[in-house]
Amino acid sequence: QVQLQESGPGLVKPSQTLSLTCTVSGGSITTNANYWNWIRQPPGKGLEWIGYIAYSDITKYSPSLKSRASISRDTSKNQFTLQLSSVTPEDTAVYYCAGGKNSAYEYHYWGQGTQVTVSS
Fold first, then answer.
1. Least confident of 25-29, 37-41, 67-71
2. How far apart are CA 39 and CA 7, in angstroms?
Protein backbone atom coordinates (compact mmCIF):
# COMPACT_ATOMS: atom_id res chain seq x y z
CA GLN A 1 0.00 0.00 0.00
CA VAL A 2 1.11 3.52 -0.71
CA GLN A 3 2.39 5.51 2.25
CA LEU A 4 3.47 9.14 2.43
CA GLN A 5 5.66 10.85 5.01
CA GLU A 6 6.35 14.56 5.29
CA SER A 7 9.64 15.89 6.61
CA GLY A 8 11.13 19.32 7.15
CA PRO A 9 11.73 22.02 9.75
CA GLY A 10 8.94 22.81 12.16
CA LEU A 11 9.96 26.44 12.59
CA VAL A 12 10.71 28.95 9.86
CA LYS A 13 11.50 32.65 10.23
CA PRO A 14 9.44 35.29 8.41
CA SER A 15 10.69 36.14 4.90
CA GLN A 16 12.54 32.81 4.63
CA THR A 17 11.67 29.87 2.38
CA LEU A 18 9.74 26.93 3.79
CA SER A 19 10.91 23.60 2.38
CA LEU A 20 9.13 20.28 2.95
CA THR A 21 9.73 16.87 1.45
CA CYS A 22 7.26 14.03 1.00
CA THR A 23 8.70 10.53 0.74
CA VAL A 24 6.47 8.01 -0.99
CA SER A 25 6.72 4.28 -0.38
CA GLY A 26 4.75 1.37 -1.79
CA GLY A 27 4.36 3.03 -5.16
CA SER A 28 6.18 5.20 -7.68
CA ILE A 29 5.56 8.91 -8.11
CA THR A 30 5.91 8.38 -11.86
CA THR A 31 3.07 5.88 -12.04
CA ASN A 32 0.73 6.89 -14.83
CA ALA A 33 -2.16 9.20 -13.90
CA ASN A 34 -1.11 9.76 -10.30
CA TYR A 35 -0.97 13.28 -8.86
CA TRP A 36 1.05 14.35 -5.85
CA ASN A 37 -0.29 17.25 -3.84
CA TRP A 38 0.57 19.62 -1.06
CA ILE A 39 -2.31 20.76 1.17
CA ARG A 40 -2.29 22.79 4.36
CA GLN A 41 -4.59 23.60 7.24
CA PRO A 42 -4.02 26.82 9.17
CA PRO A 43 -5.13 26.82 12.81
CA GLY A 44 -8.89 27.08 13.09
CA LYS A 45 -9.40 26.98 9.32
CA GLY A 46 -10.19 24.46 6.62
CA LEU A 47 -7.94 22.62 4.21
CA GLU A 48 -6.23 24.69 1.54
CA TRP A 49 -4.83 23.10 -1.60
CA ILE A 50 -1.38 24.44 -2.52
CA GLY A 51 -0.57 22.57 -5.71
CA TYR A 52 0.45 19.32 -7.31
CA ILE A 53 3.12 17.68 -9.41
CA ALA A 54 1.77 15.09 -11.77
CA TYR A 55 3.25 11.75 -12.83
CA SER A 56 4.26 13.57 -16.03
CA ASP A 57 6.18 16.24 -14.06
CA ILE A 58 3.59 18.89 -14.86
CA THR A 59 2.83 21.23 -11.98
CA LYS A 60 -0.23 23.27 -11.07
CA TYR A 61 -0.69 25.73 -8.23
CA SER A 62 -3.41 27.53 -6.33
CA PRO A 63 -3.72 31.01 -7.85
CA SER A 64 -3.35 32.57 -4.42
CA LEU A 65 0.01 30.85 -3.82
CA LYS A 66 1.34 30.50 -7.35
CA SER A 67 3.80 33.37 -7.03
CA ARG A 68 5.46 31.84 -3.96
CA ALA A 69 5.07 28.07 -4.30
CA SER A 70 7.22 25.60 -6.19
CA ILE A 71 6.84 21.82 -6.28
CA SER A 72 9.56 19.57 -7.65
CA ARG A 73 10.46 15.91 -7.48
CA ASP A 74 13.39 13.53 -7.17
CA THR A 75 12.44 10.32 -8.90
CA SER A 76 15.59 8.53 -7.72
CA LYS A 77 14.40 8.99 -4.13
CA ASN A 78 10.68 8.77 -4.91
CA GLN A 79 10.16 12.14 -3.22
CA PHE A 80 8.49 15.41 -4.04
CA THR A 81 9.23 18.73 -2.42
CA LEU A 82 7.38 21.96 -1.64
CA GLN A 83 9.15 25.28 -1.43
CA LEU A 84 7.17 28.30 -0.27
CA SER A 85 9.06 31.57 -0.37
CA SER A 86 8.70 34.80 1.59
CA VAL A 87 6.71 33.18 4.36
CA THR A 88 4.73 35.17 6.93
CA PRO A 89 2.97 34.07 10.13
CA GLU A 90 -0.13 33.51 7.96
CA ASP A 91 1.67 30.51 6.46
CA THR A 92 1.65 28.76 9.83
CA ALA A 93 -0.26 25.53 9.32
CA VAL A 94 -0.20 21.76 9.35
CA TYR A 95 1.15 20.77 5.95
CA TYR A 96 0.06 17.51 4.32
CA CYS A 97 1.22 15.67 1.25
CA ALA A 98 -1.44 13.65 -0.51
CA GLY A 99 -1.63 11.44 -3.57
CA GLY A 100 -4.45 11.04 -6.04
CA LYS A 101 -4.81 7.84 -8.03
CA ASN A 102 -6.05 8.53 -11.52
CA SER A 103 -7.34 11.91 -10.36
CA ALA A 104 -6.02 15.39 -9.80
CA TYR A 105 -8.98 16.21 -7.55
CA GLU A 106 -9.29 13.26 -5.20
CA TYR A 107 -6.82 12.26 -2.54
CA HIS A 108 -6.45 8.55 -1.91
CA TYR A 109 -3.24 8.64 0.07
CA TRP A 110 -2.31 11.05 2.87
CA GLY A 111 0.72 11.75 4.98
CA GLN A 112 0.23 12.29 8.68
CA GLY A 113 0.91 16.01 8.38
CA THR A 114 3.64 18.17 9.80
CA GLN A 115 3.27 21.37 11.79
CA VAL A 116 5.13 24.38 10.43
CA THR A 117 5.22 27.58 12.46
CA VAL A 118 6.43 30.85 11.01
CA SER A 119 7.83 33.01 13.78
CA SER A 120 10.89 35.04 14.59
1. 25-29
2. 14
